[in-house]
Amino acid sequence: MVPKRLAILGDSWAHGEWSFVGDSNVITHPGLSHFLYQKYPDVEIVNFAISGGRNLYQLDKLNEYNMSEFDAVIVFWTDPGRDVINELVQDPINRGKLTELIYKNKCKRYTLNNLDGLQLLGIPVLMIGGHVSLPDQVHDEKYTNITPVIDRMTNLVKHPFWSLEHMTHAQGTVHNKIDWMALTRWSGKGFSELFWKDVQRLSRIDDRMLNLEYFNDLGHANRQLHEIASVKIIEQLEQCK
Fold first, then answer.
1. How many CA atoms lie within 13 A of 44 on its CB side?
2. Among residues 121, 128, 114, 125, which one has the least CA distance to residue 16?
3. In the chain, at which end, N or C, are there fewer CB atoms within 10 A of the end residue's CB?
4. For the chain, which domains are there?
5. 148: closest CA among 74, 69, 49?
6. Half-sphere exposure at residue 196, Cβ-oriented, CA atoms within 13 angstroms
7. How far apart are CA 88 and CA 95, in angstroms?
8. At a CB cut-off of 8 Å and minimum separation 6, what does 38 contact?
9. pLDDT digit string (tens) for 7-23?
């Protein structure tokens, strides 16, 4: 398929490369969009991504449009915990009752809600793991319109991490489906003591210094990784009918 109209869905990762200019973290390269335009000069790309956005909110935004007019949608998957956090902000009583298991189950529920919504779009959905890795459920046979293309942007390079102790690049991969570090922004407010201890333990596991060569602001993939991702996306688009 040579696409004429593509949609992009996601959070800040979907906007491209971010870098610090002075004290401001700004978009310095349009990333995937740029490389898709290079391959398909006549393509129209509509980017529905919202920085810091939630999967469900982004999907609701997308559903305001006639998706039959698009050839495919490219999704940068983000933390389902953002939908859970949005729920808990308005429910302080249940926030205090959280356990690790309850939180994971809530994330699973929102994940399935999002995947079901993407399936119902009725067009090819190509998924990229950005902020977190793609959910295991994306491989379920019922999601006939959804294709997992890249499990995690971070894992596209051989040396994604930086070891301050040894002052060298460190190999490694990450596959977490939940961003536990996001909960640490609440500083334990409203959580039970046991759950807060679990959050601190789990967030330390994923707290690694990213390599500046590929992550200019230590949080988003740079243009090199977006170019690698574009090759995989283009290969998949060419297989679509």
1. 6
2. 128
3. C
4. 5-239 (3.40.50)
5. 74
6. 12
7. 6
8. none
9. 999 999 999 999 988 88
Q: How many helices (H) and strands (E) does the chain have?
A: 7, 9
Please give the C-alpha separations between residue 144 and each of 65, 67, 119, 140, 152, in angstroms, as whole numbers: 21, 17, 7, 8, 21
Note whether 36 and 43 are within 8 A (CB): yes
Contact 70, 122 (CB under 8 A): no
Summarised one tens digit per residue, pLDDT across range 174-195 is: 999 999 988 888 877 889 999 9
pTM for this prediction:
0.93
How many alpha carbons lie under 13 Å from residue 197 in its C-beta half-sphere?
Answer: 3
Residues of the chain with pLDDT under 70: none
